[in-house]
Amino acid sequence: MERTLSIVKPDGVKKNVIGEVISRFEKSGFKVVAIKMLALSRQEAEGFYIVHKDRPFYGSLTTFMSDGPIVAMVLEGDGVIDKVRTIMGATNYKDAAPGTIRADFATDIERNVVHGSDSAASATFEIPYFFSALELFQS
Ligand code: UDP
Ligand code: MG
Predict the structure, then answer these.
(1) 109 CB less than 6 Å from ligand 1?
(2) Residue of 12, 115, 123, 127 marked active site
């Protein structure tokens, strides 16, 4: 069964939308098979977003992502990688479709509330970044 890594980012935790984000995923039929609240160090945020290391926003992004607690989760279901991206909305909330998480709750392009793996290859890197095999359950 397909799996993806999602994160309620520090701004989403501060905005009290942890439950709202999880609820949207659950109402779409996806199962939470792992979940935890934690705070990333700057180095851990840099490692997670290493694919963006040469982008101009890398420094600011990794500062933001290590600015407070996050909620990381693994979701499971048919087509979950692409469907979670649809539920999230476009990276820039100004381009996000109405009713998406980012359209409803993001306040700028960086503070966009939620992360979701963008491909199977990304999920394969991102899931074990947060969860060991013993922390992943079957739905
Ligand atoms: N980001 C940013 N400025 C940009 C593009 C991205 O601050 O111009 C931030 C934003 O928080 C985004 C994250 O960097 O969610 C990762 O960027 P990516 O292009 O992977 O977007 P995503 O996959 O999260 O939609
Ligand atoms: Mg991405």
Answers:
(1) yes
(2) 115
Is the entire prediction scored with pTM above 0.70? Answer: yes
133 is written with which tokens? 């095999």
The ligand placed nearest to the CA atom of residue 106 is 1
Give one DSSP letter per residue of 63-122, joined into a string: HHHTSS-EEEEEEESTTHHHHHHHHH--SSGGGSPTTSHHHHH--SSS--SEEE-SSHHH
pLDDT tens per residue across span 16-41 = 999 999 999 999 999 999 999 999 99
Q: Whose CA is nearest to atom 17 of ligand 1?
A: 91
Domain map (residue ranges) of the chain: 2-135
Q: Active-site residue 115, yes or no?
A: yes
Report DSSP state, residue 37: E
Residue 122's contacts (CB-CB under 8 Å, 6 or more residues apart) are: 5, 51
Please, which residues have CB less than 5 A from ligand 2, an ion? 118
Region 2-135: CATH code:
3.30.70.141
Q: Which ligand is nearest to the CA of 9?
A: 1
Residue whose entry in the numeric block shows the structure tokens 């990304």: 122
